[in-house]
């Protein structure tokens, strides 16, 4: 019997560097819900209602900004934006295939 599983689980977090440039995957769209009065992430399986921090990060995930630039921009808006937390958040969305990365 082959010990290799038939299905593979996706990693919970992808490795993200400061030079990566995240952007929404083709099947994902950042939008605003008037009903919920919040930013939402639309993808084929569901709608994700974002908190303020998640929305602020995703608004900058346009394929032009590097992760380091996103952290810097958020640092000018808010105090104390930990780069590692932004990288983990982006990494989780990459692992779910909601964001894609291109090299800086």
Summarize the structure.
With about 100 residues, this protein is an alpha+beta fold. Helix content is about 30%, strand content about 20%. The chain has three helices and five strands, in the order ββββαααβ.
Indicate the topology:
Blueprint: E1 21-24, E2 29-33, E3 38-43, E4 46-49, H1 52-60, H2 67-77, H3 83-95, E5 99-102
Antiparallel strand pairs: 1-5, 2-3, 3-4
GO biological process, one term: pyrroloquinoline quinone biosynthetic process
Keywords: PQQ biosynthesis
Pathway: Cofactor biosynthesis; pyrroloquinoline quinone biosynthesis
Structure, described:
The strands form two sheets. Strands 2-3-4 form a three-stranded antiparallel sheet, with helices on one face. β2 and β3 form a beta hairpin. α2 packs across α3. The chain has a single domain, classed as Arc Repressor Mutant, subunit A (Orthogonal Bundle), CATH 1.10.10. The N terminus is likely disordered. It has three helices and five strands. The protein is α+β, with helices and mostly antiparallel strands and 104 residues long.
């Amino acid at each position: 019997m082959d010990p290799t599983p038939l299905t593979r689980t996706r990693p919970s977090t992808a490795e993200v560097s400061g030079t990566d440039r995240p952007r929404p995957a083709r099947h994902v769209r950042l939008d605003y819900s008037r009903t919920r009065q919040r930013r939402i992430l639309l993808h084929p399986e569901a709608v994700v209602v974002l908190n303020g921090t998640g929305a602020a990060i995703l608004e900058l995930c346009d394929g032009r900004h590097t992760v380091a630039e996103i952290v810097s921009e958020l640092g000018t808006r808010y105090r104390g934006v930990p780069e590692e937390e932004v990288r983990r958040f982006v990494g989780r969305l990459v692992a779910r295939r909601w964001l894609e990365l291109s090299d800086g």
